[in-house]
TrEMBL record:
Residues 7-235 form the ABC transporter domain. Coiled coil: none annotated. Belongs to the ABC transporter superfamily. Pfam families: ABC_tran. One of its GO terms (molecular function) is ATP hydrolysis activity. Keywords: ATP-binding, Ion transport, Nucleotide-binding, Transport, Zinc, Zinc transport. GO terms for biological process: zinc ion transport. This is Zinc/manganese transport system ATP-binding protein. The keyword Transcription does not apply. The keyword Cell membrane does not apply. InterPro entries: AAA+_ATPase, ABC_transporter-like_ATP-bd, ABC_transporter-like_CS, Metal_Ion_Import_ABC, P-loop_NTPase.
Length: 249
């Protein structure tokens, strides 16, 4: 396996129409680290992931991804951002994860088909291959997306609320899968709202409320004092707020 990717943020500000959603963030997602991004609604968590994949450009500071090309990042957006109406079988959705290896519009042979079936089996979706994605429940759809991630075999994986609106058993199964990816040396970042799961399973945490509150080992970051501070900055994004005039460090 190649070296694990890392991400360096230096005085990073990400904004919408110059109103900052992520404000002066400095720190590193280390190679092979597994980090939760936690914070109140509107704290800039999704925006930070979008910044890492290049969907939102910094208007202050920098983000540097080392050890992976942006096109090689596996990024799972929030479910709400995904269109499930597209007529596609579960098998085809999962097989999209092979895109880097097969290129677009190539038929997949028996060996790769076996890999797709194995990935669906790993997420508990054996027997669902020919179902249309629109007919799946929310949790089954999430499992299918994880099968696609498995096949993508990326070294850098970004997950935006991957366990929202799914039952505890499915969340546990998928969290176990993510834990295995971490064990394989992949670098993983997950936006999560379940503090209990974060404390139990995720070694590193970035707590953010537009401005960074704390970043480091989860037990040091997820203190009552830090969480209270983040709540104090709740809904920090305000379209009437002053534009960010603080010069980059
Ligand atoms: N496309 C956009 N245009 C304008 N403002 C946006 C856009 N996307 C997000 N914002 C604003 O930026 C701020 C940060 O949003 P973001 O989605 O990053 O928050 P979040 O921490 O992921 O929140 P949640 O927990 O509610 O998903 C919010 O106040 C949001 O309203």
């Amino acid at each position: 396996m190649t070296a694990s990717p890392s991400i360096h943020c230096r005085d990073l500000t990400l904004s919408y129409r110059r109103h900052p959603a992520v404000h002066h963030l400095t720190g590193t997602f280390a190679p092979g680290s597994f980090t939760a991004i936690v914070g109140p609604n509107g704290a800039g968590k999704s925006t930070l992931l979008k910044g890492i994949v290049g969907l939102v450009r910094p208007d202050g500071g920098t983000i540097e991804v080392t050890g992976a090309r942006r096109s090689d990042i596996a990024y799972l957006p929030q479910q709400a951002a995904l269109d499930r109406g597209f007529p596609m079988r579960v098998l085809d959705l999962a097989a999209m994860g092979l895109w880097r290896r097969t290129g677009p519009f190539r038929r997949i042979g028996a060996a790769l088909l076996g890999e797709v079936e194995a990935a669906l089996d790993a997420v508990g979706l054996s027997g669902f291959e020919d179902r249309m994605v629109g007919s799946l429940s929310g949790g089954q759809f999430q499992r299918a997306l994880f099968a696609r991630l498995l096949l993508q075999d990326a070294r850098l994986i970004l997950l935006d609320e991957p366990f929202a609106a799914i039952d505890a058993r499915t969340a546990d199964a998928l969290l176990g899968l993510v834990g295995r990816w971490h064990g394989e040396g992949r670098t993983i970042i997950a936006v999560l709202h379940d503090f209990h799961a974060v404390r139990q399973h995720i070694p590193e945490t970035l707590l953010i409320a537009r401005d960074p509150i704390a970043w480091g080992p989860t037990s040091e970051v997820m203190t009552e004092a830090n969480i209270a501070r983040s709540r104090g900055l709740d809904e920090a994004f305000d379209t009437d707020a002053e534009l960010c005039e603080r010069p980059a460090a």
